[in-house]
Amino acid sequence: MGFNGGMNSDDSTAPDPSQAAPQQDTPARGTLRDVADSLGISSAVALRALRGTDDIMPRLADRVWETAERLHFPLEDLADDHTHRGVVAVLVNTMRNTWISDLVRAIRIELTATGRSAVVVPTRRRVPEYPVAADTEAIESLVELGVDGFLMISDLADMESVFAATGDRPFVGIGCSREFIGRIDTVRIDDEVGQGLLVDHLVGLGHTEIAHVGGVGAAVATERADAFRAAMERHGLGDKARVEPGDFTEQVGQTAGDMLLRGSQVPTAVTCANDVTAVGVLAAARENGYSVPEQLAIAGYGNTSLASSGIAELTSVDPNSDRLGALAAQFLVERVSGLEEPARDVAVAPRLVTRRSTSAGPRPAETRRKRISVD
Length: 375
Hints:
It contains 12 helices and 15 strands. It is an alpha/beta fold. Helix 4 (about 100-110) packs across helix 12 and helix 7 packs across helix 8. It is globular, with a radius of gyration of 22 Å. About 45% of the residues are buried.
């Protein structure tokens, strides 16, 4: 499960070169989706071509193989269509976050190429003695059933118990905090870049009174809040970098939004720890009489279906879930196959997707609408 030492690599281009992570020493590996996208075909067609099925024309099969080799796709792990090599358990905190669905789809596509399947297992158990605890019994049952290894999406509760329950099975973290670097293989979102993209976008629109909702509930939330502060500092706005405590839930996001909008200094823009939190802030804006984006710009994180919905139309950071899930699946397959090198860390570059929720700059202070009181 654990590995001594570590190898950091960077899959991103940071907005500030002085803050960029070390570059990769080895060529960036390709995923099945990368191979397919390079040729303008589906992942399913690419996989059939690599497996040499009869329904694929030889010329296309040759092009797919050449592309796979060029992109450093791990052809050595490829399995034929009838091979079943095992099951991988994907451990999650919740099934409610649609970002998890995006990751699981990418994981399953990549595992299929190796003849493996994935089962998604919620691990959060609430018991009277503890507010939040890990369901270690379920994890231990998976070990007894003989799963090949574990993929963890984001940070789970009570991680030491989780590690103990997984025993010696390979373990890879996806979208987790930096605190696991060097201990397990990690494929993370480059949150320094992600928060930098958000702040750059908002400052470019003229916003200087920018707040962030997040920072609690998980180490990842703390790291995103720190990245927000660093991005604000880079623009000379460090003294205005307000962080309103919030976790990854809509309810807490709405409470935090109320606190921001009913305070003496109301921000003109708010970034959030994820899209679910941003939906809560949107609800708070509506209840407090603020129109979005004319009087308050709101941005999320994750670029989930919530962000792209016609109701929310949220600007959001797209974490490149396809790449996150696929790389993590590749790392796990390599560990299952006996790879014993030090723990690896890859920070995947996100991108900004702008939508209506941040399509306006700030109004002059004297024209901003205040909360409407109803008698």
